Amino acid sequence: MAGAFILLQILSCAILAFTFNVRGKIVWNDVCPNATTLGNGKATIDNSILSGSIKRDGTFVIPGVPDGTHILSIISHDYAFDQLRIDVNDSLSSVEVRPFVPGTPMQPPSSILLPYPAVLTPRDRYVYFVPPESFNLAGMLSNPMMLLMVGGAGMMLAMPYLIKNMDPEALEEFKEQQAKLGGIQNAFQSGEIKSGINAIMAATEEQSSSSSAQPNKGGAGSRGRGNKKSKR
User: Fold this and answer.
1) How many other CB atoms are there within 10 angstroms of residue 23's CB atom?
2) pLDDT 10s digits, 8-28
3) Which of 8, 37, 125, 184 sits a CA distance of 20 to 30 A from 170?
4) Can you give the pTM of this predicted structure?
């Protein structure tokens, strides 16, 4: 047991010898003035694989960061921070800090070097509450369904005035058409589909016969006038 414990200590020391402590600091500003306002935030490496707590003065240390390229992030419930690229070179005992934009390729690295220890500032505050929209008459009237409803209501209000100013013959024809439409609707509503179809066919035949009768009358009149001229 003692030998296994000693071996474990040797392995842990060897692992620590090939890792690095990444240091950084949050510079408070008007967006987030202090650590109390920040709340339970923490500095993380590679999506919280490694993390370190943030002190009151804004400094943090992430221990045990291995050699290679990593992404440094600040996890906070209320505030947004930029991400940084961290290149750890254990052989040179150095850390290089570069800007990082999510979605950009890791290679080749950016030529812009930032100071180390890494410096981050709060960029913005998350807004979780969205106030409901107030009443907007113009927005309501721009809705197509509302326009149809308003147009239909306007036609209903204007219909009595239109009927009042119609010619007697046109009014009688309009009433006949309304009566036919009412009969067809009643037939379909009562389930008498056959009678409704017959009513539609009868109305269609009447319209076709009336349209064909009008040019015949004109032709007969022209022939009558032609006969009178020939008699003269």
Assistant:
1) 16
2) 555 454 444 557 889 999 999
3) 184
4) 0.52
Quick one: residue 64, left, alpha or beta (phi over 0 = left, psi -120 to 50 = alpha)? left
Residue 176 lies in a domain: yes
Full domain range(s) for residue 103: 19-125
- Please tell me the distance from the alpha carbon of residue 143 to that of residue 145, in angstroms, as a whole number: 6
Q: With pLDDT > 90 as the criterion, what percentage of the chain qualifies?
A: 31
Q: At what angle do helices 193-231 and 168-189 cross, to 10 degrees?
A: 150
Q: pLDDT band for position 149 (50/70/90)?
A: confident
Q: Is-contact 113 99, C-beta < 8 A?
A: no
Token reading at 177: 């058409």
Q: Do 23 and 113 lie in a common domain?
A: yes
Residue 177 belongs to some domain of the structure = yes
Query: What is the rounded distance in angstroms from the CA atom of residue 222 to the CA atom of residue 212?
Result: 16
Task: Provide Rg for the chain, Cα atoms.
Answer: 43
> What does the alpha-carbon distance between residue 90 and residue 220 come to, in Å, rounded to a whole number?
112
Assess whether 32 and 118 both reside in one domain.
yes
> Rounded to whole angstroms, how far apart are CA atoms 181 and 176?
9
- What are 195-214's pLDDT values in tens digits? 667 666 766 666 666 555 55
Could you tell me the CA-to-CA distances from 23 to 18, 69, 98, 210 in Å, in that order?
16, 15, 14, 96
What does the DSSP 8-state code read for residue 81?
A: E
DSSP 152-180: HHHHHHHHHHHHHTS-HHHHHHHHHHHHH
